[in-house]
Amino acid sequence: MTAQIIDGKAFAAQLREKVGALAADFAEKTGRKAGLAVVLVGDDPASQVYVRSKGKATIAANMESFEHKLAGDTTQEQLEALVDKLNRDPAVDGILVQLPLPSHLDEQAVVDRISPAKDVDGLTPVSTGRLALGLEGLVPCTPLGSLMLLKQIHGDLSGMDAVVVGRSILVGKPMAQLLLAENCTVTIAHSRTRNLAEIVRGADIVVAAVGRAEMVQADWIKQGATVIDVGINRLPPEEGKEKGRLVGDVAFGSASEVAGAITPVPGGVGPMTIAVLLRNTLVAAHRIESIDLPE
Ligand code: NDP
């Protein structure tokens, strides 16, 4: 059997188009565009690429993009003052501070400062708490995008056994909460988990969010399971090549012989993240203006 390849790129393009149309309606109704502010501190090349592509996607979706690029030696006070200013700015509906921050800065304190109403990354304690309580709120983009792909494949996830490998605040924990809210039976695995392969083998749904190239092997996967590979890892370059290949946390080639459906890397979960960020910004803008967001 060969798995269905879940085309996250195509799904994300559809979502972006839908968000773009709703953002145009929002601008017409309110007389202003929804706005996303992205804050980048320092000159990490990967972060610069992410910020640039977020800016482009925001504009393409009929929203306003505000980029704040700060020097690597920015102080905690300066960064928090900018977050405070963005919290007050009526043109800004979403605030995203690109992580990781340089090591002299207190990341949690900066995130805590973001107004929960504008927390489009879903990382503030209020957003995290609301998700755990099953209340409406802004949910981290990567796990929400992963859930959308799962629902596209299965519709109802109720009663399915799900294993999430990884327990980060950004991916693993919110993913587990989302699956629980969909009535899955959820196991969260991490670096101290015993018998990981065996646990994964019991799952109808496997979400791998570890950051270890091709760690999840084909013989860990139950026949017909759905595999969501969140990992993005760059292999060392092959001879004569400048850059190594991007791979996920799952051994894609062999796993796709066993799985029922699987996301590729790249082109699976990755494109969903930005699409959901745009959606979250639109959701935040509608809530701020107290208008309903059409489904
Ligand atoms: P973190 O490093 O924050 O978390 C990794 C998790 O994996 C931890 O919970 C850790 O356990 C667990 N882990 C590490 N080694 C093992 C192991 N040998 N066995 C089982 N569990 C293990 O990473 P993130 O959650 O931020 O990201 C995970 C991956 O997803 C990365 O490759 C990242 O690049 C990618 N990513 C992709 C995104 C996208 O848009 N597609 C967005 C965000 C991330 P412990 O807690 O015990 O240390």
Automatic annotation (TrEMBL):
Residues 140-287 form the Tetrahydrofolate dehydrogenase/cyclohydrolase NAD(P)-binding domain. CDD domains: NAD_bind_m-THF_DH_Cyclohyd. NADP(+) binds at G166, R167, S168, I232. It catalyses: (6R)-5,10-methenyltetrahydrofolate + H2O = (6R)-10-formyltetrahydrofolate + H(+); (6R)-5,10-methylene-5,6,7,8-tetrahydrofolate + NADP(+) = (6R)-5,10-methenyltetrahydrofolate + NADPH. It comes from the Bacteria. Homodimer. This is Bifunctional protein FolD.
